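User: We ran a pulldown and think these components assemble together. Before we commit to crystallization trials, I'd like a predicted model of the whole complex to look at. Sequences follow.
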Amino acid sequence: MQLTVDLGERSYPIYIGSGLLSKSGLIRQHVRGKQVMIVTNETVAPLYLDTVREVLGDLQVNTVVLPDGEAYKTLDVLNRIFDALLEHRHNRTTTLIALGGGVIGDMTGFAAASYQRGVDFIQIPTTLLSQVDSSVGGKTGVNHPLGKNMIGAFHQPQAVIADTDTLKTLPARELSAGMAEVIKYGLICDADFLQWQASNIAGLMRGDGGLLAEAIYRSCADKARVVSADEREGGVRAILNLGHTFGHAIESHQGYGNWLHGEAVASGMVMAADLSCRLGHISRDDVERITKLIADAGLPVTGPSDMTDDDYVSRMLVDKKVLDGKIRLVLLKNVGEAYITDDVPKAQLLATLYSLGTLAT
Amino acid sequence: MQLTVDLGERSYPIYIGSGLLSKSGLIRQHVRGKQVMIVTNETVAPLYLDTVREVLGDLQVNTVVLPDGEAYKTLDVLNRIFDALLEHRHNRTTTLIALGGGVIGDMTGFAAASYQRGVDFIQIPTTLLSQVDSSVGGKTGVNHPLGKNMIGAFHQPQAVIADTDTLKTLPARELSAGMAEVIKYGLICDADFLQWQASNIAGLMRGDGGLLAEAIYRSCADKARVVSADEREGGVRAILNLGHTFGHAIESHQGYGNWLHGEAVASGMVMAADLSCRLGHISRDDVERITKLIADAGLPVTGPSDMTDDDYVSRMLVDKKVLDGKIRLVLLKNVGEAYITDDVPKAQLLATLYSLGTLAT
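Assistant: Here's a predicted model for the assembly, 722 residues in total across the polymer chains.
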């Protein structure tokens, strides 16, 4: 399967399917120069690095292997990519290849955006989360101790290659985390897709390759549609942040990496659904169906047990989605239709936090 | 005086003149949000920080004071700007103000390009070099131990405010360094301007405010013309690098900050002129007139005494202007007309290096 993210001059293809990593010529055709730097991590390197190196045999291929985990998504670790590029004398025509999950994709993309003020890169996402999420939209960056993704750039890849075979080695917990984003696309803009997910959740969670490929394709198509309309996040694109403002508060409070991103977003989406119901947009039945789908995907439906309302609110204020000190949230107008508001009554917000935060009292 | 850099949606004004820093409303009108972060250094802060703070009185104004010098143009020091932005909860509508020379401008610009994937910034250059050079073109970034300006972004300011009064506190050596770039504009694209400089070099070096304002205006206009034609440095813009490939080799060999950027470029321009003569483009008389103007501006006309040809060539190969391992140079077709070549005969290059590098043998 293949789809094109339509961004004018910066349009690029996403390939989805089995056996793509070793497919002769596929990655190679998107390398414009003679140098390639593969950036990967200690977990992914032993599994797939040799396969990718092999299909690039005629080029100057160098590699950087970073430690695995969100905790290493920092400016310091980013610098190791620059070290490697300069040690091996990569010039402006080099191509960086991100081989790994979202952390590798975000860091490699930011390194490509910044190295010599911008070079090419190719995304090879190896987790469900990164296949459906990080591959589309051009967001790249690193974390700061005081906030997630606070340092970064918009930079589009030359191509994305989502090989579903890589999901066979993915831990169940990470498959679930990826499903959180899949469910998100249904909730914000695609009620049919959400229905399809509810009917196929068992097969998806068993790792059925065909179902997963369809889920990735539909998620990417939904995201590409939203992003094409709003490349630089001036407006409608922000609906992609459903569950993320709550989620970032959870991740930041718990310390990055203790709750997976998808787990925090899952719990945040239940909060957003609950708040949407309190504001009269969707029914309590809708909230329960959404909560059941998220639970069936093996994901948390409440917040961590040690967070207070202040823990949420103070973190939601430093979040990027904040405009001049207000809390800006993505909520549901209907199931399958999101909207953005910076005018949420505090009483209802707190009611949601008290009911779903499993809050410390 | 005022001119506009015409880049479509990203066009911006450059104001040049006396008393602009304290002029009511001038800086303020280019701030779109309610937060401002002034980034400056230990040398400039005591001179001008209070003046700038005063005209921004109704906003949330925070400051970061960095150590002074090219040695601090690093990813680590850059991070102090992000620390300050996050500690003071600056959001996406913040404006960064670069108050200082080229190092402050480049770092602040890159911080603005990367903070939350891009926020506004205003340039207030306080050296002649940064007034004529860093203010136009949108190049931002930091150095890496293995190469200058290797990490960065293209990011255009909202406005540039070049107050000629700030040149009164500038050391003579730095005034000379700025003149190197002024001379460069004449050499690459403006023979009339070069002629004007030769006639007025004594007054310029005495610090005559009117002459300096005209020199800044004509330099910015020349650069803006070149940059407008080629915002992302695909082609003709590279002529702005006259003398820079040699110059970067010198700076990198001597350690950043020991030779000023303008001094290294000055010496590099004499080398470029000499090589252009050896290739039959300009006369030996032209070279001598160019050399005299550069010397009259208080600038070096030969390289450092401890560099060998290998010291130059190996550094010129890691330079960004390299395409696939070749040395790419900007040379003169005529006085006032530069061209780009990646096909310089090695014998002539070495002849220039032996004659002007004051080389170790």
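The longest strand of chain A covers residues 147-154. That may be worth checking against your pulldown data before setting up trials.

User: Thanks, that helps.
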